[in-house]
Each structure stands twice: as C-alpha cells, then as structure tokens.
Specification:
Helix content is 56%, strand content 18%.
Amino acid sequence: MIRLSPRPARLAFAFPFAVSLTLTLVLAAQLVAPSPATAQEVAWVRGEVRLNLRTGPGNQYKILGVVTTGDELRVISRGEDWTQVETAEGKRGWIPGGYLATEPPPTLRVQQLETETTALRAELEEIRAEASRLRETNATLASTDSGQREEIEALKIENFELRAGSTTQKWITGAAILAGGMLVGAILHRNSTRRPSSRIRL
C-alpha cells in the first residue's frame, strides 16, 4: 500500500503565505521610504522658526546650516518625518517635516508686493513721459503741417498770379502785334493806291 507524503500540502499552503508576506514587506518599504517630490516644487519655511539643515533625515546627522522663516527652498523628496530640500545657494540637506508652506509668508508677500508696486510705478512714469513726448511730437507735426499748408496755399496763389500775368502779357503782346500789323497794312495799302504823278517839278 502506497502512502502519500504530506509535504506537497505543506508546500501548497506555504507558497501563498510567502507571496503575501513578500508583497506586504514591499508595500511597507515603499511607505517608509521617502517619496520624491513633484518636479520644481517650491516651498517656504513657515512660522517664526529656525531649522537646522542636516546631512541626513535625523537629529544624529551633522548640521550643515540654518534655514529661517521666509527662506525659499526647493523640495527634493519628502519622508514621513523629514524633508530633503535645496537652498537658494544650492546647499542640499534635511529639515524636519511639517515646516514648509506652498506660499510665501505674509511678510515676504508684502515685500514682493512693494517691489512689484515700485516697478509698476516706474513703468507708469515711463509711459507718462512717453505719452508727453508723443503729444509734443504730435503738436510739432501739426504745426509743421499747418505751416506747409499755408506755404502750399501761398504757392498756389503765386502760381495763379503768374499764370494770370503771363496770360495778360500774351494778350497785350498779341494786341500790339495785331495793331502793328494793321498799321503796317494800312500804310502799305495807302502807298499802293497812290497814282504816280506825271508832272515834272523843277
């Protein structure tokens, strides 16, 4: 009589258990490991605090520097209790989590608004100065245009007078030529109609 060994049953039970245990460990490792931050995420230190920038995610790591309220940081990765950041100077390190905000603090926003207001005022002054220059240029062009129109009118009148004078001169010349021709014709006609006298004068 052949007896079946219980080992295959044990293996059949152990395999699903090992798979589920492996999956659980992988998921737990992913939850514990720091997650990379979104690309180009920028944050600011909030509250009136001074945070130590450390070489690793823990108080046992060496301090690299200090970040304070209003400092702009680029988030590299986020963990459960610590966040890896990069300062404006390019220094990378870790700070405790929960101290970053997605918007700059009110004091920094006020400074930004004052800077923007100053820039807008300067731009407004430039626009006003440009508008004043354009008005002056327009007035100069209008004056020049008026002067040119007056000069054109004067030239038109002068041209008309010259044409009128030329026409009058032509009429006078024509009349003089006509009168001269008539006079010459009358003289010639008179001479031609005289009969020669047969008398001999001594």
